[in-house]
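ligand=iron/sulfur cluster
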Amino acid sequence: MDAQSITTKERMAIPRQEMPSQNPEVRSHNFEEVNLGYTKELAQREAQRCLQCKSPACVKGCPVNIKIDQFIKLIAHGDFTGAARKIKEDNVLPAVCGRVCPQEDQCEKECVLTKKYTSVAIGNLERFAADYERETGQVELPQVAPPTGKKVAVIGSGPAGLSCANDLVQLGHAVTVFEALHELGGVLMYGIPEFRLPKEIVQAEIEGMKKLGVNFVTNAVAGRSVTVDELLKEEEFDAVFIGVGAGLPWFMGIPGENLLGVYSANEFLTRVNLMKSYQFPENDTPVFNCTGKNVAVFGGGNTAMDAVRTAKRLGAEHAYIVYRRSEAEMPARLEEVHHAKEEGIEFLVLMNPLEFIGNEEQWLTGAKCLRMELGEPDDSGRRRPVPIKDSEFILPIDMAIISIGNGSNPLIKQTTPDIDVSKRDTIVVDINTMATSKENVYAGGDIVTGGATVILAMGAGRTAAAAIHEKLMGRKED
Amino acid sequence: MHKIVSAIFLAENIKKIEIEAPRIAKKSKAGQFVMIRVSETGERIPLTIAGSDTEKGTITIIVQGMGKSTRELNGKEAGESIHDIVGPLGAPSHIEKFGTAVSIGGGLGAAIAYPTAVALKEAGNYVITINGARSKELVILEEEMRAVSDEAYITTDDGSYGFHGFVTQKLQELIDAGKTIDYVLAIGPIPMMRAIAEVTRPYHIKTMVSLNPIMVDGTGMCGGCRVTVDNQIKFACVDGPEFDAHLVDFKNLSDRNKMYLPQERQAVEALTHKCNLQKQF
Ligand SMILES: Cc1cc2nc3c(=O)[nH]c(=O)nc-3n(C[C@H](O)[C@H](O)[C@H](O)COP(=O)(O)OP(=O)(O)OC[C@H]3O[C@@H](n4cnc5c(N)ncnc54)[C@H](O)[C@@H]3O)c2cc1C
Ligand SMILES: Cc1cc2nc3c(=O)[nH]c(=O)nc-3n(C[C@H](O)[C@H](O)[C@H](O)COP(=O)(O)OP(=O)(O)OC[C@H]3O[C@@H](n4cnc5c(N)ncnc54)[C@H](O)[C@@H]3O)c2cc1C
Ligand code: SF4
Ligand code: SF4
Ligand code: FES
């Protein structure tokens, strides 16, 4: 089909192209990626659905304002590498964001087709372009500006730190990334599972940054191995960017949370993803043996979906999501909820855990739960869940995974008291520059916003990089 | 990769290993630990920093072979390397001039308590050390302990050396003899630390213990190391590892440490099987 000659009416007649995926029966037993990606044909067909709006609303919906209309046009014309490069002008991790962005709340929500039809599958197209460029070996290293003689330290190698480092190194600064863990990538490596984001993709991005000259130091915990002040004074860094993420998992504060078999989602996912305990005993780190067991995950976000689907893959007989509100309020990406259901995850909504119950040896045997119903709408118009009287019952489970969010890791705060933090211990910044209250120290990502998204963390890293550059090079005269 | 500078057995199954780690050596304080991953496929295990040499850029750890990871580590010789080391982690021991401070080590605990005993001495305390072992061959760091102590006692369960009995009995003896004790630090197996807490509780002697829950990251990210102290959840790797002995829920700690018993056995079996195979060929 010729991309130019097609009429608007014809465009609107094309249905949204489904993303091919592994059969649920099969994939719920393996860790390979669920989504298989568009073929060239599917991608071009989907790209033809885009109306090429004069003032594209989708672009405003994207936190980093990717030139969506333009890259989609390139795909429609068959210039896939060109599309990837167009995206990379604004987003350094398109293969990641195409997979994990909550598109239905961002770019795709604003697409003009959303109201009457279904939106253009912007995320799927972004993923396709980035994968095409990488898989065909056409990734070009960007130009690096001549050395500026300035040194910048980046703390944390999650999306915020990586994007900040990537921009700064291209601007000619000497960049060193300090990462607490033994592997780079932050949540992209230890949180989001392989079946949703293959680690190979994250590694390829990091390899590219190494080639550009970013120096990575693993096993370096800022605040312990080296403090922010030492980086600035003794190691003579001209600026520091803090992108240490959220960390510190919350528990529910109900009785029995320390029983054996109760995990935080962070611990469960770290054991499985980072420490590869699904390959025990080839890898030394053990994890609770889920085979034939009943596992309940408490929460309704992306982390909860990742944890429950991981438990299913590890052989759980019943894998439940237990959520206090109704499904409509779940913060997880729609696609993850959909995929989870296909894989046989059982959703127990409007249910509130009161207590964990254990046996003699202190192993978890059940969760006492209370059923809820939606009450009258509150001031915001949302119907709040209220307990149903005498509806208590015991859900028999062998393993519980708590996934109700994270607080801020205290290490930076404890060791750098002159960085202002909020009541919730998040770092306070000027949102235009990401500058903290401490001279030459910037911060961004989950440590500033609390648990948010990959694309927001990335955007923050880039904003900080631009501000750091300006500060270090002196303001340009205009 | 971190090179092992020296590795010598102090007693059967207990090895002292000195490793190159300049950044950690520079920063480490008494009471802190490192997380070590022996190999690419290894687990992350916490080990106390038993000493550091800023000039040589090395740290020393003392390791007791328990399961797969510690046995593998104890099999390493000088010249070999360790895949990952991160630290120093945990809050340093609280050091001040208390007056008379008693440092109590049970088994390997002696090694873990040693740097803190040194720091307590340097802070001007009258330092008493009580170190217990099952029998004479398992006594470690005796000379080092004597050198930092104003009074040093060794106890053995079987009476083969020093005081015949448990460290708790020796401590009770000192209290009964009218010694004013202002501070106690106890490090060792959970039952020992729990017993010490009961000895000092009636006398309201400030008593700290260093807890050893199972850890993964060691940076406060996973919550696996949570312990119950004063009915609240604390993360031992960032809030500890030292806590007020009179407020610790030792039962919960000892239960939680049994979480992976079947897997630990499986790992050791696989390891011994591998060693036997290697012997055959
Ligand atoms: C399981 C899970 C699933 C998710 N799914 C999605 C999704 O589908 N879509 C989406 O948009 N978002 C998702 N998120 C959220 C998203 O991953 C985060 O918002 C994002 O990773 C934040 O990026 P960051 O760079 O701020 O922090 P992180 O990715 O958390 O990275 C921080 C890094 O800093 C390191 N660090 C911490 N402390 C120190 C220190 N003191 N010194 C040195 N290094 C340190 C950490 O080890 C880590 O590597 C998910 C999160 C989780 C946990
Ligand atoms: C802060 C701290 C400091 C420590 N310092 C020392 C030290 O200086 N020298 C020393 O020999 N040992 C020390 N330990 C204990 C040491 O970490 C464990 O013996 C070791 O992890 C056991 O691993 P394994 O594979 O050899 O044995 P396994 O067979 O796996 O386990 C044996 C026992 O060790 C504990 N354990 C297992 N895995 C872990 C883990 N990842 N983290 C913590 N405990 C675990 C469990 O209680 C288990 O039952 C310390 C522990 C902590 C928490
Ligand atoms: S980065 Fe995310 S929000 Fe922006 S266009 Fe891509 S998928 Fe949409
Ligand atoms: S709003 Fe939708 S149709 Fe319009 S340019 Fe964006 S993606 Fe295309
Ligand atoms: S070991 Fe993970 S929080 Fe302490």
